[in-house]
């Protein structure tokens, strides 16, 4: 019998053989593929109802964890907000300033 553990090990070995680092956040684990797929659909502007269908979820809420912004996307949004603040004010704001000051990005 082929177990899930054996499959995960074989999958990781295959990724390593072709030079891919293995990690859920990278989309290179079996379950990580689902997250990467959900993010790609969301980034492409696909309607949430269709993403739910494509990912075989029972509800729209169940896909939220699969379509959340990753760290790179969140950092890019903070950098863009910091640039808007720099353009609007003479002071200098960094990404860490936004995090420390808890500034709402929608103001």
Description:
3% of the residues are buried. The chain has 107 residues and is mainly alpha-helical. The protein has helices at 4-17, 30-43, 48-54, 64-67, 71-88, 95-101. The chain folds into two domains: 4-67, no CATH class; 71-101. The mean pLDDT is 83. 60% of the residues lie in helices and 0% in strands. InterPro entries: DNA_brk_join_enz (IPR011010), Integrase-like_cat_sf (IPR013762), Integrase_catalytic (IPR002104). Residues 13-71 form the Tyr recombinase domain.
How are the secondary structure elements laid out?
Layout: H1 4-17, H2 30-43, H3 48-54, H4 64-67, H5 71-88, H6 95-101
Helix pairs in contact: 5-6
State the main characteristics.
107 residues; mainly alpha; 2 domains; 6 helices
The global form is flat
Compute the number of helices.
6
Question: Termini, distance in Å?
Answer: 57 Å
Pairing-aware structural class of the strands and helices? Answer: mainly alpha
Number of domains: 2
Helicity range: 55-70%
> If you average the pLDDT, what whole number results?
83
Order of helices and strands: HHHHHH
Biggest pleated-sheet summary:
none
Uncertain regions spanning at least 5 consecutive residues: none
Bin the strand percentage.
Answer: under 5%
By DSSP, the count of extended strands is: 0
Task: Summarize the model shown.
This protein has six helices and no strands. The chain has 107 residues and is mainly alpha-helical. The model has no long low-confidence stretch (mean pLDDT 83).
């Amino acid at each position: 019998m082929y177990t899930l553990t054996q499959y995960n090990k074989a999958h990781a070995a295959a990724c390593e053989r072709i030079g891919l680092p293995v990690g859920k956040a990278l989309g290179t684990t079996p379950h990580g593929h689902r997250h990467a797929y959900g993010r790609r659909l969301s980034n492409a502007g696909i309607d949430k109802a269709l993403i739910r269908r494509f990912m075989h979820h029972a509800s729209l809420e169940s896909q939220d964890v699969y379509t959340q912004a990753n760290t790179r996307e969140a950092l890019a949004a903070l950098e863009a907000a910091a640039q808007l603040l720099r353009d609007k004010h003479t002071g200098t704001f960094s990404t860490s300033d936004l995090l420390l000051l808890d500034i709402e990005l929608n103001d």
